[in-house]
Amino acid sequence: MSVENSFAAARAFALVLFLALSGFLGVTSPAAALTAAATVRDANSIQLGDVTYRLDGVDAPELDQVCIDDHADAWSCGIEARDQLTKLIGGKPVRCDDVGPEKNFGKRHRAICTVEGDKVSLNEQLVRLGFAIAREPLKANVKPAAADARTASAGIWKGCFVAPQDFRTGKKDGALLGAACRSDRDKEIRAVLFPDELTAPPSCSIKGKLAVRARVTGNIGIYHLRGCPSYAATTKPDRWFCSEEDAQASGFRKAYNCRRPK
What we know:
The protein is an alpha+beta fold.
């Protein structure tokens, strides 16, 4: 092959590689800012189009998480927190400004999201209502709102709960938070917050089990789909998920003997 032909081939290869990488990056990297109709996945996950963002600086109860209210009764605080976020959006378009990847939640990115016409972000509003706590790292200005919510015993702060991160990882000895926590009822409270039979949220049928062996693949647990051989055998799940994406974003991998049912 002549020098000219070799140069031309190399240039063509470089062009193809550039276009391939450009396309790849375009698919996997969310836009710096995106405005669209929003679908609330949970209390701190918003989907705009085919992109799902985590609210930056916010950690809200998971859909299957249980809290204790100010009357010492168990309540589905994760579902209530999700419903509060839905009310804040009110069916209006939402703008999400991407502030970087969320290392603890798969391929999702963190964002500061604001409803069209609002001056205060959803991040701050949800925290001020007491249905989420502040969580590092953060670029959203939510710390003052978090302090106000705690002082006012707003939302989940009126009762007793564990940080969502502790719930996700099954850390049963984590700090108890909220105005209604009683040190003389520590054992009873933890039994409510981490029940043996965790109730599945509506339309969430994927079972998740925390598993040491999952750490080999960088995960914290394994999820099982309905119709798979391991599903019925998986009793007393540690988590319930509404979609495979949600399970993967929470650090769970699919069971090796499980394939999507036809």
